[in-house]
Write a structure and sequence with these properties.
InterPro entries: AB_hydrolase_fold (IPR029058), Fungal_lipase-type (IPR002921), Leu-rich_rpt_Cys-con_subtyp (IPR006553), LRR_dom_sf (IPR032675), Ptrans_KptA/Tpt1 (IPR002745), RNA_2'-PTrans_N (IPR042080). By secondary structure, the chain is an alpha/beta fold. The chain folds into four domains: 91 residues, Arc Repressor Mutant, subunit A (Orthogonal Bundle), CATH 1.10.10; 187 residues, Leucine-rich repeat, LRR (right-handed beta-alpha superhelix) (Alpha-Beta Horseshoe), CATH 3.80.10; 53 residues; 202 residues, Alpha/Beta hydrolase fold, catalytic domain (Rossmann fold, 3-Layer(aba) Sandwich), CATH 3.40.50.1820. The chain is built from 22 helices and 19 strands. Strand 6, helix 9 and strand 7 form a beta-alpha-beta unit. Helix 9 runs parallel beside helix 10.
C-alpha cells in the first residue's frame, strides 16, 4: 500500500497504474461496474473510485491519465469535459474493445442477443450462412468461436460467405488451408486484418490469398515479419484498388522495393511503416517526398505532422471500427454515414438501434462512438428539432455595415469602447453610435505577456450584437507575431484544418472571457443579428471566433456576419474551406500596400 501513495516519480508504480487504466478503458469497464457512455467514455470520478485503483492517490492517477504516452508518442488516454456541467469523461485513445455486459442490469439473466450467439456458436454446422451478409455479426461469431476454442477450418468454411466485405482474423490461429477458404469464400472482401500472423504469412501464401481478393482496399499485415519486396509487387499487381496498407513490424522489405511500391501503387493513400529503419536518410527523404507528391499519408516515426495522420491511422489499425460503421449497410438499417442532412440523421438509427449523431462541424452523420466524428457528445445533434436548415442564401457586400465594422474595430483599441464609438461621427452615420451592455476581455497571448483584447456589446438602434477584437499593439508584439508565424508549426482547429500558432494561442487565452457573454446577449436578444469583426491580429482572432460560434454553438449563417479589416492569413486550405462553409456571409477588407499582409499572405507559409 505504501508504494501506491508514494508519489509521481516512481516509474514502476506509474507503469502499473497505466496497465490497470488500459485494462479498464479498453476492455473491462463494464465488467468492473463502470458505466460506459457514448464514444466509450467513462466518468472520470467513477473511474478514480474503481476498486482496482483503490489506494492510489488521485493526483497520481490524473497525472498518468493526462501524461502517459504510447511508444509512438501518442497520448494513451483522452479527456473531454461536458460544456454544460463541467463533468469530465475519459477513454482510451486507441485499442478499445470494451466488453458488453452479457447480463441485464442487476441480474444474472442473459441478454437475448448473447443467448442467440451462444446457441449459434455451439451448433454452427446446423446453420446456412451463404446468404448472410452482416459483417459485424460474422465477426462476433468468429471471436466467440475463437474464445471457445471451436474455430477451425471447418467452422470457418461454414460461416464465411461471398457477400462479406470486412473480415477481422486477428488472434485467430490459421493455416494455409484457412487462407484458401478465405480466398474462395470471400471474393468481395474490401477490408482484411491479418495482424500478427507472421508464422503463416510468406510471400507465396500472401500472393495466393490476394489472387482471390481483387476488390481489397484495406490490408493490415502488422508483424508479418517474413514478407519481402515480392509481397509488395504482388499487392500492387493483384490488388489495384488497395488504399490502406499497414506494414508495421515487417523489416525484410528492402528500401528499393518500398520506394518502387510508393511510386507505382495506383490507389494507395496511406502506408504505415512507423518502425522501419532505412539504410540511409536519403531513402527516407525520397520516400517522404514521393508520398507528398502523390498525396499518400506516410506514417513513420521520423516523419512529422502526426495530427494529419491520426485519422487514416485509426482507419487502418482498428478494423473493428469499420465493422461497426458498415454493419448497418448490409443489415436491416442503413448506415448512419449514408444520411446527408441533419433531420434525416437525427431520426435514423444505427445498426445498434441507437440514434445516429449529426455533427455540425463536419456536416456529416456518424455512428455512435465513431472515432472520425469531430464533435463531442455535447455538440452532437440527436433531436431533429435542433437541426438548423442549411443556409443557401446569396450574401451581398454591405458597404454601410463594413464602415460600421471599421469603426467598431477602431473602438476595440480604446480603453472604453462605448464613449469612443459615440464620439466617432462615421459610426453614428452608419447607425451604430450607441453601444450598451459592453463586456471587455483582456489576456496575455505570448511569452512576453503582450495583451490580446476584445469586447462584446449591443447596438440597440441597429438590433445588432457586435463582437470585436483589437489588433497588434507595439513593436514587440508585432515581432513575436511575425516570428511565430514564420517559425512555429500551425495548430489544429476544431472545424478542420490548422491555423497560425500565435492566433490560436491568443484566441484560446481570450475567448473564455467573451464566449459566454456573447451567447448570453444572443439569447436575451433573439431579434438581434451578430457582427464579428476586428483589425489585423484582431481580424484573425475574429475569424476563429466566428468559426467557433457557427460550428460549436450552432449560430446560423442568417444571423452571423463577419467583416474583418487587414486580416492576415489565418490558416491552411482546409481551415479556409471549412470557414467558408460555416460563415458564408464573410468579407475581408484589405489594403494592398500593407507589408505585413503581403508577408503573411504568402502561399508558402
Amino acid at each position: 500500500m505504501k508504494d501506491k501513495l508514494r508519489g509521481q516519480l516512481d516509474p514502476i508504480v506509474r507503469k502499473r497504474i497505466g496497465k490497470i487504466l488500459a485494462y479498464l478503458l479498453r476492455y473491462g469497464a463494464a465488467k468492473e461496474g463502470l458505466a460506459v457512455n457514448d464514444g466509450d467514455f467513462v466518468d472520470l470520478d467513477e473511474l478514480l473510485e474503481c476498486s482496482l485503483l483503490k489506494g492510489y492517490a488521485q493526483e497520481l492517477l490524473k497525472s498518468v491519465i493526462t501524461e502517459d504516452v504510447s511508444f509512438r508518442g501518442v497520448k494513451r488516454f483522452e479527456i473531454k469535459q461536458d460544456a454544460l456541467n463541467g463533468q469530465q469523461f475519459v477513454r482510451a485513445t486507441f485499442g478499445r474493445r470494451l466488453e458488453e455486459k452479457p447480463f441485464h442490469d442487476n441480474s444474472r439473466v442473459k441478454k437475448l442477443g448473447e443467448i442467440c450467439l451462444d446457441a449459434i456458436a455451439m451448433n454452427i454446422k446446423q446453420y446456412d450462412f451463404s446468404d448472410f451478409n452482416d459483417d459485424y455479426l460474422i465477426s462476433q461469431l468468429i471471436q466467440r468461436l475463437r474464445s471457445k476454442k471451436m474455430l477451425n477450418n471447418q467452422t470457418l468454411d461454414c460461416i464465411l460467405s461471398s457477400s462479406l466485405e470486412i473480415l477481422d482474423l486477428e488472434g485467430c490461429y490459421l493455416t494455409p488451408k484457412s487462407l484458401a477458404i478465405v480466398r474462395t469464400r470471400c471474393p468481395g472482401l474490401r477490408i482484411l486484418n491479418l495482424r500478427r500472423h507472421g508464422y503463416l504469412m510468406t510471400d507465396s501464401n500472401l500472393r495466393s490469398l490476394l489472387q482471390g481478393l481483387p476488390q481489397l482496399e484495406t490490408l493490415n499485415l502488422t508483424c508479418c515479419h517474413n514478407l519481402t519486396g515480392r509481397s509488395l509487387e504482388s499487392i500492387r499487381t493483384v490488388c489495384p484498388h488497395l488504399r490502406h496498407l499497414n506494414l508495421f513490424g515487417v523489416p525484410r522489405i528492402s528500401d528499393e522495393a518500398l520506394l518502387q511500391f510508393l511510386c507505382l501503387a495506383e490507389s494507395l493513400s496511406y502506408l504505415d511503416i512507423f518502425d522501419r529503419k532505412f539504410e540511409s536518410s536519403l531513402y527516407l527523404e525520397t520516400a517522404t517526398e514521393t508520398a507528398r507528391q502523390r498525396g499518400i499519408v506516410l506514417l513513420h516515426r521520423d516523419v512529422k505532422d502526426p495530427e494529419e495522420m491520426l485519422r487514416p491511422l485509426i482507419l487502418a489499425l482498428l478494423p473493428a471500427l469499420l465493422l461497426a460503421s458498415s454493419a448497418g449497410r448490409a443489415g436491416r438499417r442503413e448506415s448512419c454515414s449514408s444520411h446527408t442532412d441533419c433531420a434525416k440523421c437525427a431520426t435514423s438509427q444505427s445498426w445498434l438501434g441507437t440514434s445516429c449523431r449529426w455533427c455540425p462541424i463536419d456536416l456529416a452523420c456518424h455512428e455512435p462512438g465513431s472515432l472520425v466524428n469531430k464533435c463531442s457528445s455535447s455538440q452532437e445533434v440527436v433531436d431533429p428539432g435542433k437541426c438548423h436548415e442549411p443556409d443557401n442564401g446569396h450574401y451581398e457586400f454591405d458597404a454601410r455595415l463594413s464602415e460600421l465594422a471599421a469603426a467598431i474595430s477602431g473602438a476595440a483599441y480604446a480603453p472604453e469602447p462605448a464613449p469612443c464609438l459615440a464620439n466617432f461621427p462615421p459610426a453614428a452615420q452608419a447607425g451604430g453610435g450607441r453601444l450598451v451592455d459592453v463586456v471587455k476581455g483582456v489576456a496575455a497571448c505570448d511569452m512576453l505577456h503582450d495583451e490580446c483584447s476584445g469586447f462584446v456589446g449591443r447596438l440597440p438602434d441597429r438590433k445588432l450584437i457586435v463582437l470585436a477584437f483589437r489588433g497588434t499593439t507595439g513593436s514587440s508584439q508585432l515581432l513575436v507575431e511575425g516570428l511565430m508565424g514564420l517559425a512555429m508549426p500551425k495548430e489544429a482547429f476544431p472545424i478542420g484544418g490548422k491555423v497560425q500558432a500565435y492566433f490560436s494561442n491568443g484566441f484560446k487565452a481570450l475567448w473564455p472571457q467573451l464566449h459566454e457573454p456573447t451567447l448570453a446577449l444572443m439569447r436575451a436578444n433573439p431579434d438581434h443579428s451578430l457582427l464579428v469583426t476586428g483589425h489585423s491580429l484582431g481580424g484573425a482572432m475574429a475569424a476563429l471566433a466566428a468559426a467557433s460560434l457557427a460550428a460549436i454553438d450552432g449560430v446560423t449563417p442568417g444571423r452571423l456576419a463577419f467583416y474583418s479589416l487587414g486580416e492576415p492569413r489565418v490558416g491552411d486550405y482546409f481551415f479556409a474551406r471549412a470557414f467558408d462553409r460555416l460563415v458564408p456571409n464573410s468579407w475581408r477588407v484589405v489594403h494592398g500596400n500593407v507589408r505585413l499582409l503581403q508577408i503573411l499572405l504568402n502561399e508558402e507559409l
